[in-house]
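It is worth pausing here to work through a concrete case rather than discussing structure prediction in the abstract. The textbook approach is simple: state the sequence, then state the predicted structure, then interpret. We follow exactly that order.
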Amino acid sequence: MGEVKDFKKTTPMWSLHEAAATIGTRFTGEDIPMPCQIFVDSRDVLPGSLFVALRGEKADGQDFIEDAVKRGAAGLICRPPAPDSHLEGLLKSGMPAIVTGDTKTALRDLSLEWLNRIDPALIIGITGTVGKTTTREMIKTVLANSLEVHSPRRSFNTDIGCAVTVLEAPPGTEILLLELGTNRPGEIKELAKAYRPGFGLITEVGPGHLQGLKSIRGVLEAKLELLEAPSLKVLSYNLDNQLLARAIRDSGRRPELVPVGYKSSMYRILEARSDVQDGCLVLFVVIDTPTGKRKYQAGLFGEHHAYGLAFASFVGDSLGIPPVEQEKRLSSFRALPGRGNSFTSGKGFLVIDETYNANPVSMSAALKALAALPFSAKKSAVLGGMGELGEESPQWHRSMVSSFQGLDHVLLVGEPWEAVSRDGLPANCHIVAFDDLEGFFRSRFYPGDLVLFKGSRSFHMEKAVKILENLR
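Step two, the predicted structure:
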């Protein structure tokens, strides 16, 4: 934990033709340098990027190649074209392309070949029911001014997302951050084996993706697959989750363990409290570390983010970032869009935007933090449903009702909340449709009020934020 470690090395770039040759696939067209931006959705394509035409459950990327090229794609990974098709003509005209019967496998194989070439000094794999992306960005914030750090540009936590992230890593990458998500047994095991993290982080375990993982026990077992990675040398985890802590203690695999949390003897959270200063939300956190106490004051909503700061402190210490620098860098950290960022709307409402996603763990934590927040005006929540909870969805939505206490208004949007209404709604609670929101906002919400918006992506709660912002 002294000086910042030096991992610098050089890695030559490669061409698209060379990349195809390394994985034994056919290349056609004019050779170009491997693009540094990779897209699997034609709507996201930027000029000069590589478009990978993947066959999905609902759509086939092969059908959107023309759109990708119009948007400026410089190269393709695609399946062989049908005779006399537009794609056949495009390839005959010299469009650079890796042509293969299995584009997903080609994407993965290319990423593993590039990973071998850049050979980062450390790969950090982050998993957990909640907090992966924010924790990842906190770690990046701690390291980025001292080391060459590469992380996903979005919440890329699937096999495709990890492959894209690795392929976009620039030469000279020293630290590679990867999110390892899952909605089925075995997925994290596969990701960890392929992308070989040396450090692993488990942020939390709770109900999430229950359609595929069936139960909290299933979620726990899926996260613990990270322990099966032969590359794993160090595991940091949330000690305050008793189920997780017990399972790690009882596991046969023994990497170096670094627990964080209120009960930890290594990275102990001593204090975490939220406040509002000058119209902005601020989180104050004190963490006792092996080198002394650290005090952070970050632009975050909710005491649960103290764990991310503790994880980042551990990683910073491990890579030699001076404590004073860690305090400075993390105290400038601000919540990511849709993940608890706050702002004052044009009409004077203080908005907390948690619309990116939701599950029972994150929903409960957000509502608890909102109720406890010292705020003189009204505090309300506009909540979409929580997705992918399978047969247990009704009971998990009902379990949120106790968290509505202490709030002035709770507006519930989406069919899953119907299970709550059957048991009777608290007086401060209403089930509404999107079309009803404007009326509720006009009649019950006032400038200066604090309003939390949260829900799973499939419920599009960002639309509710827009309705409040656009009030006339």
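Step three, interpretation. The first strand starts at residue 26 and ends at 28. The CA atoms of residues 259 and 336 lie 25 Å apart.
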